[in-house]
Amino acid sequence: MAYQAHVSERKKKTVAELTELAKKYNVIALVDMSNLPAPQLQRMRALLRDKVKIRMTKKTLMRIILNNLKGEKKDIDKLADYLEGMPALALTNEDPFKLAKILKENVSGAPAKAGQIAPKDIVVPKGKTNFPPGPIISELSSVGIKAGIDGGKIAIKEDAVVVKKGEVVSEKVASVLKRLGIEPMEIGLRIIAAWDNGEIFGEDVLSISTEKVLNDLTRAAAEVRTLAVEIAYPSKDTIEELLVRAYRGAKALSVEAGIITSDNVKDMIATAERAAEEIQKLSNN
Prior knowledge:
Shape: flat
Strand order of the largest sheet: 2-3-1-11-12
Strand content: 15-25%
Distance between the termini: 106 Å
Low-confidence stretches: none
Number of helices: 10
CATH class of the largest domain: Alpha Beta
Structural class: alpha+beta
Number of domains: 3
């Protein structure tokens, strides 16, 4: 408990309560509540009721809580490396990927305001705008956006990252984004990372869609089956094709060697007939 040496009694009580509460759950996640208006927070709490308990406290106390839990939950203290933004503890027994999907489906876009932190790279895509030629070209240029005239309208020549993830949105960039109708900010709970049975999954992993996983598994299964057939590895998924290949190979070999069987006799006769026809053509010449 060295971490709590200079913590007030009130904060120690908070740490003790949250530590005991967290022990009851299989999954401990961090969610970022930055830029989340109160109405949206209440809606998310209602959506997650009976599935997830969300508890907010200071980052310092969260570090103490996670450190207190490491005796019972392997490597849980490493979750502290992901504390960023305005984090809160999300305690649940739900699969962390399912939780991430629920949160992602309930995120909506919002205009960027000066002073906000970009949750991801903010990109202005290339293409035509609805603006006629005018001063806006210099405004775009001032924030690193290359623009020109195309068909009587201002066009952005190439994709431009105007704010990188974690950087502060300037007033000038916020103004340009608003004029372009780009809403890069996310209103909702953003999952940062989750601890599940000794494993920590970052946002980049948790954000992978179910469709992508299924497509990857399908492609991998097809590639493995192709390889198994090529190396003649028998299994319930390859045996039928291997037997068909073996049969065709044996049949072709028997025909080539002139060995007559019940399976190749028709092919042998057809081959003999073609040979006879060729000889007849040559003799006629």
